[in-house]
């Protein structure tokens, strides 16, 4: 039987797993998981997105592809739209492009550029707006996937992340979906994915 590949637009405040795990510590409320959105059995997420991040997730039953995309030794590009606090500067973008130090670790160089506010679905709930502090957007492409890396990178250059949306894994992009929606990949998209297996 051929492998199955789904693309999913993970909403804000959804766990990147099918099992419930812990409830929200403060309120005791049940947290949403992938099981609340993905009804196709036998597929599993490739990597993860943080609970408070949004955007593209790939799910499949192709174990070889899961391994290649999840293992940091096989670096692959992931692109994010990032809303930050403050007006991002050219100096900060250059720092991100060269790599920044996070604790005892220096990140690999990234592609970083300022962008206009993208055409993106509203977040539910929206970010907290402070009238006295502007926000700006950047597009950041990294080849690593360390814990909360993008948030830690923007904070390291003085611009805390307010909203984080992954829009691409390699050439696979988040198009035509709203938060909570998923679809099977087209044959052409599957062909693009197969390049990751080499």
Your description of this structure?
With 198 residues, the chain is α+β, with helices and mostly antiparallel strands. The chain folds into two domains: 1-73 and 172-198, Pseudouridine synthase I, catalytic domain, N-terminal subdomain (Alpha-Beta Plaits, 2-Layer Sandwich); 77-169, Alpha-L RNA-binding motif (Alpha-Beta Plaits, 2-Layer Sandwich), CATH 3.30.70.1560. The chain is 17% helix and 27% strand. The protein is built from four helices and eleven strands, in the order βββαβαββββαβββα. The strands form two sheets. Strands 1, 2, 3, 4, 7, 8, 9, 10 and 11 form a nine-stranded mixed beta sheet that branches. Strands 5-6 form a two-stranded antiparallel ribbon. The radius of gyration is 17 Å and the shape is globular. The two termini are 21 Å apart.
Short note summarizing the structure:
By secondary structure, the protein is an alpha+beta fold. It has 2 domains: 1-73 and 172-198, Alpha-Beta Plaits, CATH 3.30.70.580; 77-169, 2-Layer Sandwich (Alpha-Beta Plaits). It is built from 4 helices and 11 strands, in the order βββαβαββββαβββα.
Features of this protein?
two-stranded antiparallel ribbon; Alpha-Beta Plaits; alpha+beta; 9-stranded mixed sheet; 4 helices; 198 residues; 2 domains; 27% strand; globular
Question: Helix count, per DSSP?
Answer: 4
Say which CATH homologous superfamily of the largest domain is assigned. Answer: Pseudouridine synthase I, catalytic domain, N-terminal subdomain
Structural class: alpha+beta
Question: Span from first to last CA?
Answer: 21 Å
Biggest sheet statistics:
9 strands, mixed
* CATH architectural group of the largest domain: 2-Layer Sandwich
Strand content: 25-35%
Q: Which topology of the largest domain does CATH recognise?
A: Alpha-Beta Plaits
Q: What are the low-pLDDT stretches, counting only 5+ consecutive residues below 50? A: none
**Apparent shape:** globular
| Tally of DSSP β-strands | 11
| Helical residue percent band | 10-25%
**How large, in whole angstroms, is the Cα Rg?**
17 Å
Order of helices and strands: EEEHEHEEEEHEEEH
């Amino acid at each position: 039987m051929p492998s199955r590949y789904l693309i999913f637009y993970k909403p804000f405040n959804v766990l990147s797993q099918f099992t419930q795990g812990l409830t929200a510590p403060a309120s005791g409320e049940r947290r949403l998981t992938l099981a609340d959105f993905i009804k196709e059995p036998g597929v599993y997420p490739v990597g993860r997105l943080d609970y408070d991040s949004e955007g593209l997730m790939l799910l499949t039953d192709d174990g070889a592809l899961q391994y290649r995309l999840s293992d940091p030794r096989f670096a692959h590009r992931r692109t994010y739209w990032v809303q930050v606090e403050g007006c991002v500067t050219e100096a900060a973008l250059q720092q991100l492009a060269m790599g920044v130090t996070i604790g005892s670790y220096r990140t690999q160089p990234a592609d970083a550029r300022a962008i206009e506010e993208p055409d993106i679905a509203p977040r539910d709930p929206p970010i907290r707006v402070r009238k006295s502090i502007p926000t700006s957007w950047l597009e950041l492409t990294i080849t690593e996937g360390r814990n909360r890396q993008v948030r830690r990178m923007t904070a390291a250059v003085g611009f805390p992340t307010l909203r984080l949306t992954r829009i691409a894994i390699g050439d696979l992009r988040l198009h035509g979906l709203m938060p909570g929606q998923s679809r099977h990949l087209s044959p052409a998209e599957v062909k693009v994915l197969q390049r990751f297996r080499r």
